[in-house]
Structure formats: structure tokens, C-alpha cells
Amino acid sequence: MIEVSNLTKTYGKARGIEDLTFSVERGEILGFLGPNGAGKTTTMRIITGYLTANSGTVKVAGYDVFEDPMEARRRIGYLPENPPLYREMTVKAYLHFVCELKGIPKSRRAACTAEAVEAAGLAPVYGRVIQNISRGFKQRVGIAQALLGDPDVLILDEPTVGLDPRQIIEIRELVRSLGGRHTVVLSSHILPEVSMVCGRVVIINNGRLAAIDTPEGLSRRLRGSRCFMVRIRGPHEEVPPKVSELAGVRSISVEKVDFQDGKPEVLLSVETEVSLDVREALFFKMAELGWPILEMRPVDLSLEDVFLKLTTEEKLEDVVEVAASA
Asked: Are strands 63-64 and 55-60 parallel, antiparallel or unpaired?
């Protein structure tokens, strides 16, 4: 749905972005991350047609944003970091005004507005003046104007900035509900939010691609292995050696030994080769021995850990390695 190829943008002698390439699939929610000044907003503005580039191409739904800008823009809904609201207007008047700006036929404006109002949850404030509604509802109005015309692509730049925790949860759920029907590119500094909403993330640093993958995939690549915790009911002295016999297991550490109803339980941290998933083999091995598995869960680097590793100068070798493998 979005194809960015070898995109470069400079501001005089300053580099905005350099040779940036990535793609976004139809219906995907993609997180777009980077430190301040990395080039996130520049990239979003180029995709939406607000800025031109020095070189490279951007296609939205097959339309080149430089050669066929109007057709590309018709397929894009854009929420900038500061929503473009006319605060003296009512929500209803503003959305109808945006319909007119977007060239939506008069016969369709009422239906389009109603769909956007329902999707964004604006019914309680539909008749109110924008300056008199909460910050959370203002963000919802910004999202609603991006939804008008049912665009294929939504570009959301910091949609939860300045909101309280409850409003953040509400907007997060709204963004999650938009995936599938729309292709969403989401920029945010709230990294747990990105982990919960986005299937993949793009991380850029100093205007260049640092990595693109799922959060779990990035964690495994940077760690260089898989890691999971497993709780097994069985003799605590015999369980670890049997687990370590499995192909692909690098190391094991005993985290805790406990007794429940007089039966021993052992909690292990298991590190394995990144290319091997040993969980199935572990299940059958423990079943063969009659030692039930009570718990098994992955242990990944958090997105914050990944972000810091990929955007810290001391870890530049990690950036090159992960970007190359992506």
C-alpha cells in the first residue's frame, strides 16, 4: 500500500533523511519510531505530499506522490502532531468543512461524516464548539477529519501526545480498530503503546533506516538468541540436565525451586539458538518423563531496550547488522 524507495531530503547542508526504503502492506499498522530529529515527521510529510524530496520515490496505492499527487492524496488521511482544527467551529461544522476541502460530493457528505463520527466516538460532542471540548476529544476530531472519505491510508503523527492515561488508552483502542480496513502508519514516543498496537516497526536514526521488523523479531536479532521462562513440576535436580539435552539449547539457569502440595517445581530460564524453536521438543520430552509443564512464556527485550540499542551511537554496529538483516 505504501512503497518508499531510496528517499532523500536535505535542508541546505542539513540532512533530513537519506536513502530511506521501506514498505507497508495493506491493512497493516506500522509503528514509525526514532529520536527527535531523526526524520520521522519529514518522512510523513513527504508521504502525504506536504513536502517534496531531493531524490527517491513514494507510491501510495500505486500512485506516485510526486508525479500524480492528487490521486495519491485522495487515498491518504493525515493527522499531524498538532491537529489542524478551527476551534471556533462546532465539530459538525468543521467536519462538513473538511468534506468540502476534500472534494467529497454533497450527496455523500452526511454519510461520510456520520461514519467518521461513529468510528472516532464523537457523538457526545458532535454539536459542541471545538475549543470547549477536552484534549482527548480534540484528538478524536483530528482522527475523524483524517477518516473522512474513507482513505486507504492513515498517517498519524503522535496521536496521543499530551493526553492523560485514560485518553491514551481510548485513542490506542481506536487506532487498533482502524487496522485491517485502513493501512496505518503511527508515530509515537510512547513505546509500550507501539508494542501493543503495531504489528511491525520501522526505526530510523539520523535520517537512515536502522531496522524494520516485528518487536519480537528485533528483540531476537539484538539478543542473538531466543529466551523463555518455563516452570516444570518434577525433581529439581533432574529437570535442568534433561532440558539442556535438547538440540538448540544454549544455556539454562535455575531461577527458583518451590514445593506445592509437597511436589517439587523448578522455574528455568532457557536460552536457545535464535533459529530454533525448542518449545515443542521440550513439551514432548517432559511428557515422556511425566513432568508436567505448568508455565511457559517468552522473555524478549522490550521495545525501549531495542530502541535505545538502535539509536545510541555506541551501538552503531548493532544498527548496521540489524538493518542489513532486515
From this structure: antiparallel
Q: Domain span at residue 281? A: 225-298
Specify which residues 2 forms β-bridges with: 24, 60
- 227 neighbors 55 (Cβ within 8 angstroms): no
Encode pLDDT of 16-57 as tens digits.
899 999 999 999 999 998 888 888 889 999 999 889 999 999
- For residue range 138-188, list pLDDT tens digits in order: 989 999 999 999 999 999 998 887 778 887 888 888 888 888 889 999 988
C-alpha cell at position 253 = 539457569
- Do 211 and 155 lie in one domain? The reply is yes
State the pTM of this model: 0.72
> How many domains, in total, are found in the chain?
2
DSSP β-bridge partners for residue 209: 204
CA distance 64 to 315: 36
Q: Position of cell 517534496? A: 52
Residue 312 inside a domain? The answer is no
3-state secondary structure of 112: helix
Q: How many CA atoms lie within 13 A of 171 on its CB side?
A: 29
Q: pLDDT over 70 for what percent of the chain?
A: 95
Among 72, 80, 61, which Cα is nearest to 143's?
80
